[in-house]
Amino acid sequence: MVEKWLRSVAVAVCVAAPALAMAQERGTAEEAVALVKKGAAFYKANGKEKLAAEINSRSPMFQEKDLYLFMSPAAGGALIAHGANAKMVGKTLGDMRDVDGVNFVQKFRDVANSKEGKGWVDYKWPNAKTGQLEQKSTYIERVDDVYLAAGIYKGK
């Protein structure tokens, strides 16, 4: 009887362990905000070009768990830096939409150019770590003429 119970517990642990590991690797909303604020402080101390170089080099300073920082002009235009996909840098993404038709890049600019200059945008995006399409919520904050952003994946 005890042996059967131990086997059941062992199976449960084996099944649950990957899910728990994945949950621990996901960034939180608080961590996303902190990453953006860290980027803003670096920007103010070192300038836009140095921040872009750090982000584009995938510096661990601007990546945590599944979070990464990206930077774009608040007025629109080519993406300046992206911590997960260097191929996006230099591309104008203004009309980019998710699978549900949400023009999330325009929403990023709307938030950046709002009175508060910061906030959250929800959309669907492939998880940079898993490649799976997931719900994502991205925190945006304007700094001078750009916005910095980092998003959390919420699952499917």
TrEMBL record:
Sequence ranges assigned to domain Single Cache in this UniProt record: 58-144
Pfam hit, one: sCache_2
Primary location class: membrane
Compartments in which it is found: Cell membrane
InterPro entries: sCache_2
Keyword Zinc-finger: no
Signal peptide feature range: 1-23
Protein name from the UniProt record: Histidine kinase
Chain ranges passing through the membrane: none
Topology versus the membrane: Multi-pass membrane protein
Taxonomy, superkingdom: Bacteria
Gene3D superfamilies named among the record's database cross-references: PAS domain
One CC-aspect GO term: plasma membrane
Keywords from the named record: Cell membrane, Kinase, Membrane, Signal, Transferase, Transmembrane, Transmembrane helix
GO molecular function terms listed in the Swiss-Prot or TrEMBL record: kinase activity
